[in-house]
Write a structure and sequence with these properties.
Elements lengths: L1 H20 L7 H15 L1 H7 L3 H17 L11
């Protein structure tokens, strides 16, 4: 139940921001896609902030976990490596 309330709260906040910016909802496709991209990148800010003190762990997280979450699984390019 808690996740539904958090989701509702986030939706209300975005609705208020859209209203202040004068963007109609549902947003035009490009505005919606940019917003979704911001959500994907914003999700990674907290884990990155937690790993800032440990630079090797931060580099591993961005390269392996964060990149796959934002960009999706990448094809194995064994043919492209020399």
């Amino acid at each position: 139940m808690k996740i539904y309330l958090v989701s509702l709260g986030a939706g209300l906040l975005v609705g208020v921001i859209y209203s202040l910016l004068g963007v109609r909802s549902p947003a035009p496709p490009i505005v919606a896609l940019i917003g979704l991209g911001g959500i994907l990148l914003g999700e990674q800010l907290v884990p990155i902030a937690k790993r800032i003190a440990d630079r090797p762990e931060l580099a591993r997280f961005v390269r392996e976990d964060c990149a796959e979450h934002v960009l999706g699984p990448q094809p194995d390019n064994k043919d492209c490596r020399s």
